[in-house]
Amino acid sequence: xxxxxxxxxxxxxxxxxxxxxxxxxxxxxxxxxxxxxxxxxxxxxxxxxxxxxxxxxxxxxxxxxxxxxxxxxxxxxxxxxxxxxxxxxxxxxxxxxxxxxxxxxxxxxxxxxxxxxxxxxxxxxxxxxxxxxxxxxxxxxxxxxxxxxxxxxxxxxxxxxxxxxxxxxxxxxxxxxxxxxxxxxxxxxxxxxxxxxxxxxxxxxxxxxxxxxxxxxxxxxxxxxxxxxxxxxxxxxxxxxxxxxxxxxxxxxxxxxxxxxxxxxxxxxxxxxxxxxxxxxxxxxxxxxxxxxxxxxxxxxxxxxxxxxxxxxxxxxxxxxxxxxxxxxxxxxxxxxxxxxxxxxxxxxxxxxxxxxxxxxxxxxxxxxxxxxxxxxxxxxxxxxxxxxxxxxxxxxxxxxxxxxxxxxxxxxxxxxxxxxxxxxxxxxxxxxxxxxxxxxxxxxxxxxxxxxxxxxxxxxxxxxxxxxxxxxx
Length: 474
Known about the structure:
Layout: E1 2-6, H1 18-32, E2 36-42, E3 53-62, E4 65-76, E5 79-85, H2 87-90, H3 107-124, E6 131-135, H4 142-148, E7 154-159, E8 167-168, H5 170-174, E9 194-195, H6 196-203, E10 206-209, H7 212-217, H8 228-233, E11 238-240, H9 268-280, E12 291-295, H10 304-309, H11 315-321, E13 326-330, H12 335-347, E14 351-354, H13 359-368, E15 371-374, H14 384-390, E16 394-398, H15 401-406, E17 418-420, H16 425-439, H17 442-454, H18 459-473
Parallel strand pairs: 1-2, 1-6, 2-5, 6-7, 7-10, 10-11, 12-13, 12-15, 13-14, 15-16, 16-17
Antiparallel strand pairs: 3-4, 4-5, 8-9
Helix pairs in contact: 1-18, 3-4, 9-13, 11-16
């Protein structure tokens, strides 16, 4: 089967979040299963050009002008990456903005241009695609333009996070293109804005999202972000498929970032990783006490209101007060959370925070921690709880979305973590206290770690489910 993945980001070339990991790993797995997979992506300025070759060029019709696009290709492990070179992307510092906090004001014409280019690339090449798999709002207009430019292919549209929809004033689109699909004039405030996510949901052949529970949640008005009516109408053409993780990158037996590798049969290396992590974060005297980790965007979605701002003292301060455990945190985000974390770190020597993003440090943290705290308000799938289980680090999660689908509470004999509900400061503290108590029973702790590490979260099962969707469409 010939499959084109359309995405604004993908490893190993561009990444701002989990979307890039998902596209890269899913494509590699589908290729291993015997499919011919290409990934259509923007060529950003920070992408090294070595190894890429120019394959074709064409004009993209925009309002009153034709924009020249050049296509470059590079094969990595059997997957062909197809890069769109255009000033909208090649002359920018970032993916969606120069920083993650300030999007580019012309993101509407940027990704409208990207959608047209995807269709025009397929129209210009001899490679006859079967499935075009679109990922998130930046690709929402692709199904419409495939039809407009008469490209025959079935389309799948995957929602990675419904909260980000690509909503813009109509003027932004009008100055870019004379043709705006009617499907984009749906969703919240449709009379005022165009909505790229809505267009994707209405014009594609099949909708998926990244966990079964999240699919159920977004069909309800409380979490549907104004698009629940569309999702209800398309219930028979939609499915939640849980994400997997790439065990080539996330595996404590082979992870090159760890001071000591370890496995289910020999966990001794995990203690060495914990010692190194405490030294990295400059926390002393907690080698034999529970170590909790957080790796996250500092955002409302991730439960930081409930963790840091509600109550006096807040939930995190209550966790730190007894000095019977330590907490390490890696992340960037909202300044109000950064300020509160700085205040708490000045008061407690058992809290250490690094306002940064570092892949090697994330690997070390997953390996060295005893527990991983992830109290997200909503979570389409979540990857860190899957990484944590693979590394024998028991997750503490809110019962929502993919967290509900992947973590079994330790009250169950097959448990792999701690599940709290509903999300509030009191329940966060209670869940952490349960983990602290559980830590004292070393035999049960070891058994739970091994059980979590044995959970199969590889991409094979997920890829098979996507193949079932593709096959049904064809």
